[in-house]
Design the sequence.
């Protein structure tokens, strides 16, 4: 079970979202994960637990609207401004700014987007329920429905391994396609420069 849909379905940005990583990665029934065990053997359990604690504390302050832009620090580190973009449902903000602490990774891999327009929080569509189980599992149910209805194995694999929003017939849009459509709309709505006097000749 993933906690992401439950957190991202909230149409507001609250500091308690910073606990998302703790809830998602440290569920009591999962116990100590294999990757944590491997890391503990090489770096020591104290170092691993310190890194987890530091990351959790760092995530706490980036989940707020109270902190604006903070200058040169933003060139290297994930900040509240960068992380607001990550939680945005605006087309230009979809699938952007995945950084936990270092924003340099997003800049390196081309997923960085600075905060320019006001962020609209939530999902790209409204859910018809506030039931936690529906919010948590609706995407899994939709994925299963798409895979079951797919006419070919290629389409089934596309639904499973393709980007969110992928469809074999193009009836739904991926984040990249939504960004491109929004960019085309903004260009179409840009007023043409006024032509008058000698410029018209």
Sequence:
């Amino acid at each position: 079970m993933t906690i992401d849909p439950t957190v991202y379905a909230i149409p507001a940005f609250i500091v308690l979202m910073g606990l998302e990583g703790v809830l998602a990665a440290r569920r009591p029934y999962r116990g100590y994960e294999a990757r944590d065990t491997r890391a503990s053997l090489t770096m020591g359990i104290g170092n691993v637990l310190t890194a987890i604690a530091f990351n959790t504390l760092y995530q706490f302050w980036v989940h707020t609207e109270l902190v604006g832009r903070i200058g040169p620090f933003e060139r290297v580190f994930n900040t509240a401004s960068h992380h607001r973009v990550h939680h945005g449902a605006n087309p230009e903000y979809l699938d952007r700014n995945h950084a936990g602490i270092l924003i340099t990774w997003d800049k390196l891999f081309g997923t960085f987007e600075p905060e320019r327009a006001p962020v609209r929080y939530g999902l790209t569509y409204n859910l018809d329920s506030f039931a936690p189980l529906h919010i948590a599992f609706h995407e899994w149910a939709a994925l299963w429905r798409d895979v079951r209805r797919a006419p070919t194995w290629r389409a089934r694999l596309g639904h499973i391994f393709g980007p969110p929003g992928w469809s074999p017939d193009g009836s739904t849009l991926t984040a990249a396609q939504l960004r491109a459509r929004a960019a085309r709309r903004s260009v179409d709505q840009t007023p043409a420069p006024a032509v008058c006097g000698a410029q018209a000749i």
Notes: Residues 61 and 99 are 14 Å apart (CA to CA). The chain has nine helices and no strands.
